[in-house]
Amino acid sequence: MSWQTIDRNVSPYAAGSEPVLSEGVREKIRSFFPRYDTKRAVLLPALHMVQDALGHVPYKAMAEIAEVLEIHPSDVLDTLTFYTHFWTHPKGEKVVMACRSISCELTGGREVLDAIKSHLGIGEHETTADGKYSLVTEECLAGCDHGPCMLINEKLHKCVKAADVPKLLDDAKNDRIEVPRSDLFDAPERSNSNQPS
Amino acid sequence: MPNYEPVLLRNVGVENARSIDVYRSRGGYRSAEKALKQMSPDDVIDEVKKANLRGRGGAGFPAGVKWTFLPKDRKRTLLCVNADESEPPTFCNRVLMEEDPHQLIEGTIIAGYTTRAQIAYIYLRVEFHEQFHILQKAVDEAYAAGLLGKNILGSDYSLEIYLHRGAGAYVCGEETGLIESIEGKRGWPRIKPPFPAIEGLFRQPTVVNNVETLANLPHIIERGADWFLSIGPPGSSGPKLFCISGPVNRPGCYEGPMTITCEELIMSDEYGQGMRGSVPVKAVFPGGTSMGVLKGDELGMKMDFDDPRNYGLLGLGTAAAVVVNAETDIRLVLRNLARFYALESCGQCTQCREGTSWMYRIAQRIENGAGRVEDLDLLEEVAGRMGMMPGLSICGLPDGATFPVRGVVQKFRAELEERIRNQDPGKVEAVLAVLN
Ligand SMILES: Cc1cc2nc3c(=O)[nH]c(=O)nc-3n(C[C@H](O)[C@H](O)[C@H](O)COP(=O)(O)O)c2cc1C
Ligand code: SF4
Ligand code: FES
């Protein structure tokens, strides 16, 4: 996104403790090296995998990514904080990303956002107490023909009606997508749920 | 358009169109084979130049000409496919990727061969999740069929395609912001020159092309430049995708020649099918929001590369129109757009960072009922001082920010003044206390 600050509360740095990146993640990050001229160019793919593995990217993970890519930890922090997609503190299991841009606002996006807020009882960039949902708004998701729209993790929900929001959010399968997934940017241990304790 | 036969969307609705077998059964990859086996890179450049294929990413620069800027004695070339598509309300690249991913891959092979690129990075905005999975599967299929990798189709040409996922930043669609982002940095656009053709990704000669631009290539190779030139008006040749969204009856992505007008796009049965509830049109942003705005009585504008300038717009942009109906408060539109640019400015250039932020603050104040008539002059003044391309800003974002804001203020001044006059003076203090 931009130079403006979003919530960048960062989990405290746990110096000296066990590494947070598994050997599997490190290996997968290294497997991207042949794709690019520099190791630093693997930073975005690495951040995607680490966020997938840990749910967010704590300081310690930034330092460990820096080690694998042979760059400075501040390079990782600098890049990471530019992009809204990466979280520096724990987020919910599912992230609801509601579009706030023009076509969606003109077709009822604000009412949908209000319905999400009231159903989940949280505001933007907040997480529900049970850790199930985080809520963010984002600019145009390129789904304007289906406005108002929102993503729940990978799934784009189209032409959402405010009245349907509670049912939609209570549906356990609301983040399932219909096309076969590629695991290229996933953490290798994705299937055995590797959330940090 | 009666009798218009879709080209770019010709596989939409065909069962299993995403699979390589179906794509091939409908003539797919024959153009890549023809280019690689029967044409030299210069032959392809000549044909594309002759067709005058203008870039579909927003700037309209002829693709064939852009390729000739690459140094003749270069050792390497890198190709970047711009699939960042973040300009509201644009979604035609999304449709191309999810409906017909192999068409994009074939276009990429042809562009790669022509520019002698060894690697093509497809830069996808991260919010394209399903599109990423669809495209990656198609890339895997193309590798398995010998259409990517070493010695494609038995020729001497080799190409790797890697998908690179972004992480949420509009400015990464700007070609040098995109390059920085691939390099693992914040997506800050670079000062030009050097232009990417000379020194781009990893300091190598680099070409950045939009998804729709590349999707045209197989058809130009197959049917030739003369066919391409026969579609649309001079200067705006070839098939074009148009997006229409907002409160219309049938929002969507449609294909046609660039002879259609904005009115047809909204009203015609083949496109938008008119306004929902038959509410009249108040305003249209016809080329993506960054190009500026048309009033309801300016809908005769042709959706081509040249006519938008006659209406005070920056250009055709992405040819994605959003319609505002007569029931909508124009102050909401002003605030929504001003916010977009304020939040998406990357912050490197002072006048862009500060200007977009001030426009947003002023727009918020107007929307919330604490505006002053002077604020409209102030918006125009701020806008007039920050759109300084070429040269004084690092990238084109401030132009994209000022055209819609200034356009709304100038073309809807009467409504804005009236709404300001009708504000409740007793509420102003309270509004300002919240905003400041
Ligand atoms: C702020 C900004 C955002 C842009 N976003 C995109 C984008 O999302 N997709 C795109 O193709 N071009 C985008 N462009 C235009 C690119 O810089 C570039 O001109 C284009 O990708 C070139 O491709 P083409 O010649 O095939 O059109 C953007 C430009 C600016 C200034
Ligand atoms: S003009 Fe704006 S968006 Fe572009 S580089 Fe400068 S600050 Fe960033
Ligand atoms: S405006 Fe919401 S997806 Fe484009």
Question: Summarize this, please?
Answer:
The complex is a heterodimer of chains A (197) and B (436). By secondary structure, chain A is of the alpha+beta class.
Count of individual beta strands of chain B: 9
CATH architecture of the largest domain in chain B: 3-Layer(aba) Sandwich
Helix % of chain B is 40-55%
CATH homolog superfamily of the largest domain in chain B: NADH-ubiquinone oxidoreductase 51kDa subunit
Strand content of chain A: 5-15%
| CATH homologous superfamily designation of the domain at 94-170 in chain A | Glutaredoxin
Biggest interface and which pair forms it? A-B, 57 and 71 residues
Main β-sheet description of chain A: 5 strands, mixed
**Global shape of chain A:** elongated
Task: Give the quaternary arrangement of the chains.
Answer: heterodimer
Total individual domains of chain B: 3
On the 0 to 100 scale, the average pLDDT of chain B is 96
- What is the number of strand segments of chain A? 5
Unreliable spans of chain B? none
Highest-level CATH class of the largest domain in chain B: Alpha Beta
Q: Which topology of the largest domain in chain B does CATH recognise? A: Rossmann fold
**Percentage of helical residues of chain A?**
25-40%
Mean pLDDT of chain A, rounded to whole units?
92
Secondary structure class of chain B reads alpha/beta
Tell me the β content of chain B.
Answer: 5-15%
